[in-house]
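Budget justification, computational time. The allocation requested in the original proposal was used primarily to generate structure tokens for proteins on the priority list. As evidence of use, we reproduce two of the resulting records. The first is shown immediately below.
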Amino acid sequence: MSRIPALLIVGVLAFSTSADAQTDLWNLAQEHADTHRFSTLFTAQQVTSDLANDDDIDQAIRWCREMGITKVYLETFRTQHWADSQTIAHARDRFRKAGFLVSGCVTTTRVGKISTGWDLISCYTAKETQQQTRQIFEFTAGLFDEIMIDDFWFTDCQCEQCEKARANGRVVVDGETFDVDGDQWSDYRRELMLQVSKNLVLKPAREVNPNVSVIIKYPQWYDNFQERGYDVVRQTEVFDQTWVGTEIRDEFDERWGGRGRTTAYFLQSWLEGISGRKCGGGWYDTLGTTPATYLSQARQTILGGANESMLFNAGNLRFKDPGRSDAEALQDALPELLRLATQVRKRQAIGVTMYKPPNSEGENERRVFEFVGMMGIPFVTTDRFPNDADAAFFSVHALHDADFVKKLAQFLQSKRPVILTDSLAQKIAKDIDLSDDHFSILTLDGNVENAYSLPVKELSMLRDVVLKPLNLAITAPQRTAIYCYSDGSWVVENFNDKPIQITINGRSHCVEANHWASQWMEEH
């Protein structure tokens, strides 16, 4: 008997919870944990203040169950605060007895000698910092089989000691000397943090606990990784797992704004391409959020392929605003988010391929990917030149690939459509004939936010060209994110303050202001 595809249409952001209101979120979350899990973290300070006795632990367990959280991370160290080992162990055992997975976490703020840059960050050239780093991870490995490192695992120090080491091209860690390939601060810091990771985190932790798995969590600020010592290739190779910060702020928030609204999707999917099976999950918080942007973080983390979502942190979500309102919104949306994770897990995303080589800088196009993602064009990501892509997007980041021009010339021989930013086009104009009909130039004029200011007519023409080989025909306004799948399913996010009308392959749909919609092709 033939199988006939049917449409299952789901559209939600502030969906009605009448059917789900009676659902036991704890049991529902346990049933879906293999597909997607929600977790939270108690900071070292919160372990001390909020988990110090059984009554407090009972309340914390009750709240986690009500939220559908099935895993907790207990932090041992943050900003020179050490949580007491007996307090940690007792809370750990109570949560485990209640049916939770429990892991450890370390936030390496104000360890040893303080950086000349940000005063929360440390100088890892200094012996005192190296010694305390070892102590922190030996302590934590004695309590947990899994440890996550929060995304302060970097340095911006330029003290005299660091400058001398950089100039000499030598990193000294735990008494051993390592050569640095290059004379830039990024070269020195990447080698320094790699060797500190290997010799003062992983080695001592495994000596204490041979079963320990250590997670490096990369920050949200992907275009600055290499400047501060993150190396997503080499550190990913040595750590057991990778995570990433998938925070999305309200773009108009005075303190936290200025970021594109598709950051979480781009970063989660890009890092998954680098890490493969090592890629665990995404971590987001309440800073600069509204309930709508908080849920967008959750949704995009899932769309990007994460297996787990970390809700940072328990104290803010339980006791502070906007954390409490964000938590209530997530609690209402949890059944729908778990359904979304189930649908995404079954499918292969398709779209124009965005290329960002690891450790690449964006010059005047930093963060361009998250703004281009709001142009109503479906995108997928890659850290390697997209030889097999049906259509591709390239920014100045691509020039970090020394063979980029040669690879692009070969790519163009197949007449596949390409979008180039204007800055990249200017840099390669002498080497590539840009008059080819398969080129589209995206004019940003040095401001990545101009990506979603393209006039409607020009955007439609661009979309028609790049989506043709994907067999997609889409009309949508700016400030829209579209995620497409190989079976014809799709998800749309509307970042506008008014309803929008979209058309995908001849079918028209209305998406409410700051809401989302989805359509899944199910087989019967």
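The second record produced under the same allocation is shown here.
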Amino acid sequence: MEVWRVLDTGLLTGAENITLDRVILDARAEGVIHNTFRFLRFNPPVALVGYHQSVEQEIRISYCLENNIDINRRITGGGAIYFSPEHLGWEVFATLDGVRFPYKVELLYRRLCNAAVKGLRKLGLKARFRPKNDIEIGHRKISGTGGTSTGGAFMFQGTLLVDLDVDKMLRALKVPVKKLSDKEVESLKERVTTIKWELGYTPSYEEIKKAILEGFSEEFQIKFVEGEITDFERTEFLSKLPYFSSNEWVYGIRPSGNQDNSLFTVRKTPGGLVKLALSVDVELNLITSAFITGDFFAYPPGIIYDLESSLKHIPLKLEEVSKALLNMRRREFQIPGVKINDFKLLFKEAIQRIKYTRYGLTLNEVNNLFFVNKDLDYFMVNGVDSLLLPYCSKLVGCDYRHREGCTLCGLCTVGDGYKLASKYNLKPFTIVNYEHLEEKLKELDETGSKGYIGCCCEPFYEKHQPDFEKFRTPGLLINIEQTTCYDLGLEKEAYKGRFESQTALNTSLLEKMLYLIFKHR
């Protein structure tokens, strides 16, 4: 039976734990240590973004700073997570052999998660693996997992929820709220569970660790022996800790550009959200830099950086981007659930957007437009006949907040929307909840609508992009750039039409778009 080292590094800071991840993985790749299993915990609590994510987009930075919550970046991909001292992390550091540890990522995930499942069942938990990378009990997530690899070695890690302060997690992170649609659940609180919630008590950490190790021992025929950090690892740790503590690592050194010279697109894939920001030189028609983020996993993670690098200072043309993607296809890599064509479609939309400036739009305005089924050129030719407005932009307490109509009292921006609907002979609808949205989109399909214009926030569009596209009617949506239900963690209430805060429509852009559409017809 093969002998593995077991480490329990106890409570460490975010930077210390991430540094150890890098050090142990590199040491295994270089062959200076044997296969290793590590248990880890964090103190103070930490909000961790995935390797490819932007801290500003995924973490509520001010809340974390005010509440002594560390912020750091994992060396693995995936989405943002909140890790409190109560949580227990587990990690596997080993070499890929094609047998016990398959080269194919999906098979590797399944095998390793099945080992963890065996361990959890020893605690009396009815755990099971749910692809692509979750362990759940009764359809409620108790452990998320993910990994990365280098030089033939891999690290695979899991976060085990022993107990959980859901409210604090919701306030620290932005990502989980956006991911609710992916998990097909009503709320985050109903989607997760913990060992304490399931058992009614909290086993000791020693009991939990013993069960997990027994699960892996049975699955892989391993004998675990407690060990220590080697002198080599300790030296590397002290050398690399300053970097993994730095803003350069945590916040990233890759510029995402600014609203004046950047193009933004997003695409929802089975592997997660993929977001693209292109910095461009309009006069020279060049891509100056590309920034690809999201909650996907990439193996090796450097493939994304390599793609970004290959796109610098090339002509702003789809055929040039296609060449870079073709070279990427020749490399050995895996991005589960995300295809090369998904990247191509992202770039295609971004490049298409710059052409819309010929209508007199700024790039900032173009970035605040979302298209459903058709591009802007379609609307310039065919026009629109309906206006969809969200109830959350109506005055709180208004008699018409949850029903059709508007008194044009001037106390909210929806009144401005209704005035524009009258000016351009559009039929206005106040969307009061998600089911009502589907009902109206179905109605537009059945009546042969040529298209609608509407307003919604970017998180809502990201979450429901496939839902909009399943209806035939083309749509043009304008972003609401304000604090929304997603920022406040209240999207469940909004889904049901119970969000009790007021947003404001971007009426200037709405008016401009209607003017342009009807001017060009």
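A brief technical remark on that second record: The domain at 368-521 is CATH 3.40.50 (Rossmann fold).
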